[in-house]
Structures are given as C-alpha cells and as structure tokens.
C-alpha cells in the first residue's frame, strides 16, 4: 500500500483571514518562523500567502503594511487530498515548482505537506529528493519559484 500524505502532513496550521492585513501576515510569519500562511474563510481554504508574496506583491508593489491580504494572496491553488500518495504529492510539487502543498477535504484545509515533511522522514527520502530535484531543474534558468 502506498504511503499517504495524511501520514506525514502538518495539521496544526497557522492561518489568516481576509480581515488580516500584510503587516499582520508578516508578524505571523515572524512569530511562528514560517513562510507560508493559508488564508481561510471559516475552515474553507481560499488562498495562500508566502513570504515571497509579501515581498513581490506587497512591498515591491509599494503596498503598505495595512494593505489587504487579498492584494498579495495567491488564489489559483494546487491542492491535494489527504489520501493522496506521497509519490503523487512529490510529483505535484515538482511539476508546479512548489515547496508546500495544502491538503484539503471538501474544500476545507486539513493540513499542509512540505518538502521538509518528505525529507525529514528517512522513509520518504526518495520522494523528497525527486520533488526537490524537479523544483530545482524546472523553469527558466534566471527564474526561481520558491514557496
């Protein structure tokens, strides 16, 4: 039986809502030592914001700290279900050049699986290596997508 994402995903996720602003997201990231915050309405996943989003879509676009979350969040999300195999999750990460992948059930955020989740557990080393290799090799030579 294939290993499933639910066996290694993080379920205690720090989240934010559309009522938060760019400054509050930055503080959440600092205080929790994270670079990725799912944006939810209730439990429904509606977007994500990464530390890179804050820089590129926020500050580099001259948005102030009081700018709305919606000004910087990504809404075109790649997600997987909790029963997705670890191999498939690694392929999704590699093919889409993403390092963190929201896990949803019926549209609700169930957890997050990251390259680190794959790499930390020795039994998943091959999947993490494959995903990281795909992320590192895909795309333009001058263009890097870090999430």
UniProtKB/TrEMBL annotation:
UniProt-listed InterPro entries: CBS_dom (IPR000644), CBS_dom_sf (IPR046342), Diverse_CBS-Domain (IPR051257)
Keywords: CBS domain
Keyword Transferase: no
Lineage top rank: taxon: Bacteria
Domain (CBS): residue spans on this chain: 9-65, 73-128
Record SMART domains: CBS (SM00116)
PROSITE patterns linked: CBS
Pfam families: CBS
PANTHER family reported in the protein's UniProt record: CBS DOMAIN-CONTAINING PROTEIN (PTHR43080:SF2), CBS DOMAIN-CONTAINING PROTEIN CBSX3, MITOCHONDRIAL (PTHR43080)
Name this polypeptide is given: CBS domain-containing protein
The organism of origin for this protein: Paenibacillus glycinis
Lineage, uppermost ranks: Bacteria, Bacillati, Bacillota, Bacilli, Bacillales
């Amino acid at each position: 039986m294939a290993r499933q994402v639910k066996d290694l995903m993080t379920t205690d996720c720090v989240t934010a809502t559309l009522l938060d602003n760019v400054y509050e997201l930055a503080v959440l990231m600092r205080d929790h030592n994270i670079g990725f915050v799912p944006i939810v309405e209730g439990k429904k996943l509606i977007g994500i914001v990464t530390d890179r989003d804050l820089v590129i879509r926020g500050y580099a676009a001259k948005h102030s700290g009081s700018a709305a979350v919606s000004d910087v969040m990504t809404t075109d999300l790649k997600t997987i279900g909790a029963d997705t195999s670890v191999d498939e999750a690694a392929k999704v990460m590699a093919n889409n050049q993403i390092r963190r992948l929201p896990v949803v059930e019926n549209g609700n955020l169930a957890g997050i699986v990251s390259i680190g989740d794959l790499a930390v557990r020795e039994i998943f080393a091959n999947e993490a290596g494959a995903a990281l290799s795909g992320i590192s090799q895909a795309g333009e030579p001058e263009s890097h997508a870090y999430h």
